[in-house]
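Hey, I'm writing a tutorial for new members on how sequence and structure tokens pair up, and I'd like a real worked example in the thread rather than a made-up one. If someone can provide the structure for the chain below, I'll link this post from the tutorial.
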Amino acid sequence: DSPEIKEEIFRKDDRLLTLLKDVYVESRDPPVQVKDGGGEHLPCKQEEKRLTKLGHLGALDVKKVSKGKISIVEALTLLNNHKLHPQMWTAEKIAAEYSLELKDVNSLLEFFIPFTVQEFPKETKKAIKS
């Protein structure tokens, strides 16, 4: 804050300036080496996206997915639709409806089978009291 210190800071030292004029610095970049990365840093094509068929979760559902992929809600919906109405929801129709490849839909329908919840009738016996 004192004016003497500020003056000392901003004062030019002629002796140092003449010494600095004699200094010569040469800087060179190292030679550029091309990495054989197989084009991994090339700009990629913009992925096509499609709007999902929203389920009952509303705000929690995924809104957009890449073409050729489905959300969890869509997967469960299409598996259930195929299970309930296999003649109407064929693999071809599912592939067209959800922008999927037919081989992927066939694999999905073959290996992912939704389970059925079965309720057994309640027994009329009284519970054992301890």
